[in-house]
Amino acid sequence: MNSSAKFLAIAFLSLPVAHAEEVGERWGTADKEREFYPIVDVPIPQELVIEAGAFETLPDGRIAVGTRHGDVYFVSGIDDAKPQPKYHLFASGLDEIFGLAWKDGSLFVTHSAELTKLTDTNRDGTADRYDVVSDAWGYGTYHEYAFGSKPDPQGNLYVALGLSSSYHSHQLFRGWAFKVTPEGKSIPIASGLRSPGGIGFNESGALFYMESQGPWNPACSLKHIKEGGFTGHPISFNWYEYAPNMGKAPEVPKSGSKIIIEKERIPQLEPYAVIFPYIRMGRSLSGFVIDGTSGKFGPFENQIFLGDYTQSILVRATTEQVNGVWQGACYPFREGLSTGILNTHFTPAGNLICGGTNRGWPVRGLKPYALERLAWSGKMPFEIERVTVTPDGFNIKFTKPVAEAEGVKTATYKVTTFTHKYAQGYGGPEVDLTAPNVKSVEISEDGLTATITLDAMTKGHVHEFDLRDLRDRDGEELLHRHAYYTLNEVPSSK
Amino acid sequence: MHPRTLPSLALLLSGGFCFAAPPVVPGLHGKHPLDETQTGRLLIGELRCAACHEGMDASNMKEAPDLSNAGARLTREYMEKFIADPAATHHGTTMPNVLAAETPEKRAAIAGDIAAYLTSLKDGPAPAFPEGEIDPYDGKELFHSAGCVACHSPRDEATREVLKNGVVSLSHLPGKHLPAALGEFLHAPLAIRPSGRMPDMKLSKMEAHSLAAYLEGENKTKPAPPAEAARIDAGRKAFQAHNCTACHQPEKDANTPPLAAKPLAKLDLTGGCLSEKPGKAPDFQLSAAQRDAIRENLGIKRDEIAANDRINIHLTRLNCIACHVRDDFGGVSPKLDDFFHSTEESLGNDSRIPPPLTLTGAKLRPEWMRKVLYDGAVVRPYMKTRMPQYGEKGLSDLADLFAETDKLEPLVELAPPERESQPQMRDGAHDLLGDQGLNCIACHNYNGKESPGMKGIDLMTTYERLQPTWFYQYMIAPAKFRPGIIMPSYWPQGKAVRTDILDGDTDRQLRALWDNFSLGRSARDPSGLRSEPSKLVVADKTVTYRGRSGVAGYRGIAVGHPGGMNFAFNAEYGSLTAIWKGEYVRVNWQGQGAGDFAPLSPHIQLSQDVAFLNGAEPPSVWPAHPVVTKEAPVNPDPLYPRNHGYAFLGYSLDTKTSIPTFRYRCGETLIEDTTKAAEKSLERTFTFTAPAAETLWLRALTGDIKAVSETVFQTADLRITVPLKSATLRPIASGGMELLLKITLPKGKSNAALGYELLR
User: What is the ipTM of this complex?
Assistant: First the structure.
């Protein structure tokens, strides 16, 4: 065999392996997804660099875009059929923008240095007044990014602060979350953050942030922030003396334990509500947004849409509160975006705008930066709409009625479970695999919900659903056959 | 904004063709691969035979233009003329004459009625011009470079079409569209003609309107006055009676089923549309050859068509073959070669001629091909000819067909390499790519950065686009896949020319490159790649930029004044920390770089400690800011500024000059701090707002300070002018001097000023 012959096969065969180490294999569903959610490029003029980190809708319908370069553009025409938007520079010179919120006639910008209020006092279209709203945190390595939320109904804004170099807490309150009140008071409300990618609310107004895989975090996860809480990474306990409202520092968790065990011991500890199986459901999830489009974006009203930086994909998540603890599921949604997604936002027309960059970290998408728009084509995809828990199993809701033949078979519902260790090391494998039996299945009259019961419900485990055999009534298979439910709590039967 | 006009253009264009001509499918006039049966099949789709005849092949039928907004887009005069005699009005059109059997008078009357009816259809916005200057000369340039000439005739200096055959003439355009309508159509043609025979050329609005201005000349058309209701009604009836509705359904709510013609099984292949004198049947003005091809196709038994034949029909139908070679057909014809250009022509023909499609299904990953076909992905920005977008509808199977047809077999199977060798492989790839290795970056951009030489395709797109087997075989023998390419083989006959990298092992070298490309943005830059720092430029207004900086701390602010006086402000501690003259700052937006800045010219560094303190007397030792080190990385005094009374409040930008006025507090006193620049000096003005009378201390300067006068002090490179009777110069225990200014504030507002003058 000559040497050239050898390589061919190496490259050919090992492709998935080589890829898996870097950004992961594709789902392979992009071409089907295109039919339901086409991606439209939103052109950026050649002279501009728009590495979008945050979005906000302005009262006049324009979209504000905050960038890593520290600029804020007001963009009009994003929703046009063939967009050729106008970019108006509203403000510049800020430091890595990861939060934009319009409130009381001003734009509140969360960037590395501060939460700054931008106001156009002379109404000439550009900001001329930059007011510090909060700089209650230290800033001493470049990786100490700050992420800002939209206002809650009381007008509070929330800020999530990454660790120093993503491992330490060398500066004040690195790894903490803050509430900034309308009066300008900055209140530390939670410790334990590692490397946030976004902060916001679910559909019922509960505060969440996106956490990245790393020490004490076996994979990326959506975590609830409760006031006084601790979200899992203990390196930031050194600042409790600066936060008297938070009481004493929690007990340090035991490395190598399970979060479900540690949370019983450490009352402040909030387990992740939704964990995103590493690589399969993203590698660096980032900003997220709620679909509040009243159906304009399709069948996923009130669900959470999240972008992933590394894989240039979008996923969905749903949450519910059981026994006072948040938990829920995640679902694949769309792959094939052109750059690393840092944030997402719904436009007034109900389209999802995504933006980001591929600078600095491995990214599948090729463009150094891009804005892309997803619209719902109006065709109904056959999808798992959401999974919710019952005392002895799950309700799986679909977007279209399922075919009786496969739908009523318990064998159609393949459920496996796994959990992770809660440990100081970086990331962690899926362990304690189980395969519960599906004891029964019942299809609702409208064909839209399957209620399954399991012979075992394992608390603390991710319940992974694979419904590859399921069909809708046209014989179509699911666009995405997987869902992953993080089971922190099992509701008691009445 | 109305377009500028090209002199005498309208006049020259007003001639045009006045004889009828057969319908033109441009792809059939080039070097196409279809036999007569396949040609017939293609024509049946293009002429929409299945719209009237049951049993005909309706797949890939060209859709007729959407007329629902015709009244807002087209002139009534044009529609009237066109309907009365399509082929004579628009040379090469596929629209049949459905009134051919009528007398000339009656024909004109019916066409007038239908035009009146269509003029009444306004279901959509009225086309509008974009803001800005529309220049037909830009349109002329575009027309002859973007690829329009693949299907339309190039034009001479007098804007006359130079080719008569095999092209869809555009000489009918002057007078066809209402103002701005042609530009809007060219911007988004698929909205009106969804089948992509006129594809989307990825024109910006300005480009589209410039092109329209070139093609139609000065548009002096005016919307027709509304027609009488009776005439509109007569037109609507005629529209249905003449079966226009078989192809056009302009009214959403008034859909009428087409009138069925004879089904295929009962067709007389010498009569009707296929006879030389179609009589009452629609008259397509078919040529004898076209009639023969259609008859030939209708006569055969239709089996499943092979994938490769389906590809060939696609490529001919959409005239892909005007630009692309595949196997032994297609390619840029000699008469059009001169219209294909590049901004990197030294890269040879491959920089200006679209890539061959031979084996393209084995070359490109199907998902990438779809991005090119449907999403407009582009990796050759230097090529002036644009890859059109045909829409997804009729083309959704093309990538699969290519994948099915084009095969390039790997030869043997081996297990993947072990993990331990990875660092070595990465170093190997790094060495191969750089200027000490094969210098790939001499002709290729890399990872979004421009090559120092020719700006060929970005190598980092390799992994996303290509299939590994093709990559390997191509690298061994580029010319085998692209005859005439200037890319050399660095592994001739499979032997590596660089024997010193990765042991000269061809497999490992290519494997290393492939793996390197899979790293995307995280791959290291090869040696020799330019990495230009991003410079911020100050023009006619002051620029304020925030970011961490060695000269101003993490909450640093750089201020650049027009004229070149710059300074930096540490917003965390409230001190002016650096001054320099010359270029403003460079910022780090490379890699993960978070925009940290550094002065572009030598700067004078000042103290970064808090600048203001309040109290009757200054502290005996001015409080120093906390320092972190590698050994002790945790900030030992995180409340340092706050404990010394300092809080940063923000800044305002002057409406005219954009000069920032910083706002901060010392205790209860509000300090507004702004600067004015002269040639080599800065004047800094403080405005204090004190709720009660108090004393502030400002440490204005540290270092080897000499007193020049009671109000002037200087170091080796900086002279500072202070208010009268304010200054105290005292030694610092650790060495040097410090200049303290006592500022006695009354209740309310007061001012003070400092001058900074550069001595070098």
Answer: 0.93
